[in-house]
């Protein structure tokens, strides 16, 4: 597999040489999405698609073969395609026909694409229902949802993130307090408890980045479009804790930029009016001042991890106020008018702020 790029009118071609551990993913996940596309071609109103149909199309999970020279075998590609099919069936709500023992059989093999497809598929099929059986199934795959002294089941990072997002889908728009508390801790807390176990094929930064984004999306789904109508969550100060990461990410000390009381964060160039906090509350009432935090005391002390948690907070806030037309959120997610200030923003933060503002 050759991946190359040519820039503009230049005749120079840049070849991308993936690491040996990345070659398998370059084949597996496109095949996974091919299976999703095949499932989405089935009408949601189809009545003949039952549990027997799923069983007849099942690929032998007991015979996964090892990759040859870094390339996935035909069996592994078939497993990935079937995993995508399961996810697509869940999006069409056809996965409700899957019986519980069959779901456990899929998950017991711990084949990552299959686990991701089953967890997200079941969560999508039961989205917004807060079904207790599916909730327990998802909780087993998310350490943050397990009891403090629970055994480590050694799930892959992708499976844990899928469990997080699946939890958000299952509890969509419910404002379930316990779930919101846990997800808030994972997005804004000083040290999330559900970080995935180290994977030798993925850097720790990449694992934590995907986990933070998954937690932010899940939190946004649970509080989707509730805004000020999110009952029972006022004492959590959810909005204020999210704004801390949007305006002044912990772990980086800001400095006075000389712009009439605006504080500039040197990492992402976000600008914050210290007196403009919602309900005239100081950010110090939610978290200690930035300069009082010890470097490394908060997950995200590196620029990449802090960026991930900042984008997660933007996702959560934007989804929480989806289609509410709240002028305060529009102001929080707005971009500066001057090009000088705009250049201080990280491109990802600027993109998500613009997207979130128009949600």
TrEMBL record:
GO biological process: anaphase-promoting complex-dependent catabolic process; cell division; metaphase/anaphase transition of mitotic cell cycle; protein K11-linked ubiquitination
Gene3D superfamilies: Leucine-rich Repeat Variant
GO cellular component, one term: anaphase-promoting complex
Keyword Kinase: no
Keyword Transit peptide belongs to the record: no
InterPro entries found in the cross-reference section: Apc1, ARM-like
Keywords, comma-separated and alphabetical: Cell cycle, Cell division, Mitosis
Signal sequence region: none
Entry's Gene Ontology molecular function annotations: molecular adaptor activity
UniProt record similarity statement: Belongs to the APC1 family.
Protein name as catalogued: Anaphase-promoting complex subunit 1
Species the sequence originates in: Dispira parvispora
Protein encoded by which gene: APC1_2
């Amino acid at each position: 597999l050759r991946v190359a790029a040519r820039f503009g009118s230049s005749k120079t071609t840049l070849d991308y040489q993936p690491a040996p551990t990345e070659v398998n993913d370059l084949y597996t996940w496109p095949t996974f999405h091919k299976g999703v596309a095949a499932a989405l071609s089935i009408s949601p109103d189809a009545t003949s698609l039952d549990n027997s149909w799923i069983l007849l199309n099942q690929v032998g999970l007991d015979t996964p073969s090892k990759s040859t020279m870094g390339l996935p075998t035909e069996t592994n590609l078939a497993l990935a395609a079937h995993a995508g099919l399961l996810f697509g069936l869940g999006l069409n709500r056809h996965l409700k026909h899957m019986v519980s023992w069959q779901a456990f059989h899929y998950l017991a093999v711990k084949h990552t694409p299959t686990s991701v497809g089953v967890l997200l598929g079941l969560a999508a099929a039961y989205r917004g229902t807060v079904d207790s059986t599916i909730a327990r199934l998802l909780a087993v795959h998310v350490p943050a949802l397990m009891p403090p002294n629970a055994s480590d089941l050694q799930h892959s990072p992708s499976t844990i993130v899928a469990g997080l997002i699946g939890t958000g889908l299952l509890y969509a728009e419910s404002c379930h307090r316990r779930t919101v508390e846990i997800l808030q801790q994972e997005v804004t807390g000083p040290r999330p408890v559900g970080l995935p176990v180290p994977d030798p094929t993925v850097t720790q930064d990449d694992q934590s980045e995907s986990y933070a984004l998954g937690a932010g999306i899940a939190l946004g789904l649970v509080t989707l479009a509730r805004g000020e109508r999110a009952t029972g969550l006022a004492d959590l100060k959810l909005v204020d804790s999210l704004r801390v990461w949007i305006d002044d990410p912990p772990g980086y000390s800001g400095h006075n930029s000389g712009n009439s009381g605006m504080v500039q964060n040197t990492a992402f160039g976000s600008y914050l009016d210290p007196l403009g906090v919602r309900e005239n509350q100081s950010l110090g009432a939610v978290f200690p001042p930035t300069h009082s935090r010890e470097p490394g005391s908060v997950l995200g002390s590196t620029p990449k991890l802090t960026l991930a948690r900042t984008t997660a907070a933007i996702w959560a806030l934007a989804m929480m106020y989806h289609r509410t037309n709240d002028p305060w959120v529009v102001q929080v997610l707005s971009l500066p008018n001057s090009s000088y200030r705009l250049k201080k923003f990280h491109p990802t933060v600027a993109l998500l702020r613009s997207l979130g503002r128009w949600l």
